[in-house]
Amino acid sequence: MGVSPRDGTRHPRRVAAVIALAGIVLTVITAWGAHRIDRETEESLLDGQSQQAAVVLSAAITVIEQPLEAALAAYDSAGGANGGAVFRRFMSEYVGEDKVFQNASVWRRTGDGLDRVATIGAAPTSVVRAQLRESFASTTTTIRFVNAGERTQIAYARADSDTGTLVYAERLLPADRRAPVDRDSAFSEIHYAIYLGDEIRADALSTTDVDPSTLPFDGITATEQVPFGDKVLTLTTTPRDHLGSELGQQLPWLLLIAGLLLTAVATHAGQQLARGRLTAEQDADTITALYERAETLYGQQRELFVSLQRALLPHVNPQIPQVELATKYVAGARGLDIGGDWYSIIGLDETRYGFVVGDVSGRGVDSVAVMAQARFTIRAYLVDGDGPSAALEKCAPQFDIGRDGHMTTVLVGVGDWRTGEVTLANAGHPPPVLLTEDGASFVDVPPGRPLGTGVAAYPSVTVRMPPGSTLFCYTDGLVERRGEDIDVGLARLAGLLVDAGPSSVDRLVERALDTMRSDDAPDDIAVLALRWTGERVRTDLPGDVTAPAAARRFVTSALADRSGEEASPQPDDLALVVSELVTNAVRAGATRIGVELLVAEHRVELRVDDDASGWPTPRQAEDGDLDGRGLQIVEVVADEWHATELDRGKQVTVIWSPPAPGSGD
Amino acid sequence: MIEFSAEMDPETPHVLRVSGEVDIATVDDFLARARRALEGSPTVLEIDVAAVSFIDSSGLGALVRLRDEAVAAGKTIQLTHVPRQVMRVLELTGLSETFLDQPGD
Prior knowledge:
Number of strands of chain A: 25
Distance between the termini of chain B: 36 Å
Oligomer: heterodimer
Structural class of chain A: alpha+beta
Strand content of chain A: 25-35%
Shape of chain B: globular
Strand order of the largest sheet of chain B: 1-2-3-4
Largest sheet of chain A: 6 strands, mixed
Shape of chain A: rod-shaped
Number of helices of chain A: 12
């Protein structure tokens, strides 16, 4: 698998770009929206203010128009010579330096012309007669711009066509047209420019509060028109600062900045997250692939180990006369590693066989290696002729838990299939069960230390298996259960062996595993069941003079099927030997004499045990010497003999074992 | 019961016929009969062992003693018709020459 992203949309850069774009767009839209809202608010506020200003302007206009109307009416009503004085007196309030008008005058129409008949203030300088004539035709005040030298004036003329009189006034505009605005007035928050007429033209400008060169206004403006005589005044306004709230003005910028910042943060965060997710996905892919691979290897390795373990175990058990064998190894349920349990059966010589059940601690290749070493080392010693004790004692120094990492418990047995005797030695291993028709009992083989834990002595125990009895050996995986004392498991095993009743050894092994083992048990188990089916050829005799004859008959019938000149021993020789030995026992004062015959294909063993004291010593008998000839005969007739001390008495063993053709180890 | 007998035929007073098994159980009986036969016999007592099925060192020991007693009395004993098993034992004990065909030492 590669490390490229699975899906384009998940690439961190693209994620960042998308987030950034979205953020910027949103920010711009929002800021623009706020700006638009602010602007509309501003416009509507300005409209309101303009309208207010227009109202004020209208009122101001009235202040200008009304006196003219009233002055004309006053003149007309006074009439004659007084009219002028009345007019002047009336207009004096309005005419002057800082007053509304620079001058005011009354005119009378005479014929086609007009005469000025009264004046207040300076003489009007810029009368435009056309305007006067137009006044008569108009019902309102006529208003004109007129030039007065360098300044501009507004000329007002109001006529009464009935009386033929007209009032005329001139008002001076500031040179710069500038008229400052009162702080509290309606014009305080706005700039204004008033134009005479309905066009916004520089030469139509009447008054303004800004520098005329900056006109007309741009940005947010509002326009109102106010009737002014026969003309209109056009009022244009623009906000001085910001009519609306400070916040409204700042908001678009705040939104823009905040939006951009947020976008930047979100972009960065988004990129990080996408990157992290990408990494996680890549890791997940890697982990999945590795896991799959590990599982495959796991399966292969376990198979390999199982094969290895099986290869080390005997495939086919050797056939041993008069012995029925059943063996089984079961690998632990859990995990990859194989445990180090094993069993071994070895034919040692014509009459003896060895058997071993062992358990290496732990798991894995190491434990299998230790198992192999233990198995083959013990086997070598047994084949070499060592008994179980000696084999273990020689083995122990070759193992070291510190170096090997494992310790090993072993049960070693050497059996004689002719007699059913089994000698056992034990290195920390659980005791075997002896199952007879009387029940099941654990054979107490005093356990020495497990191999690898130090050098120790391994005392041996010899068991005479009754004919048909079974010795059941196993490893602790069979009897151990978590949370349970091992004694419970041992009792369970003994119980099930008894309950099994008459069963073949194979069946016993099967029953034991089925009953004792749960499917998920982690430990592996090795089991060995050994049944001796032979019969002991033995007779026990009272220690009297009839004993030798009885012994002779016994061995002769026991050896009856061995015939031919090649047979060793010849029946006569055997009878002679047994007669000599039994006679010696009788003479020594034995009360009980046992005669046992152990027959194998190429070996016959005669054992005579008695409870008398004394020790057989062959003497070179001279003529006339009655005693001592017996053993002399034995020495000549048999291949070997030896005496063994018993608890009470002794046992003399005589062996005929001609070398068989083709044998030799 | 162990089979044993040692008989003298009146027509052949110098022959003792022994049959059966001569071992610790029967050796005393054998010696007694053999001594009587020796007393009643001339210089040579012939012991016919054709029917002896078994003899061991106990039986041989008795024969050796009998021979010694015979020699002391100026007589000899002779084993005749020695069967295989008896011969074997005589050979095993190196007594074959003593008891066969050679009167005296």
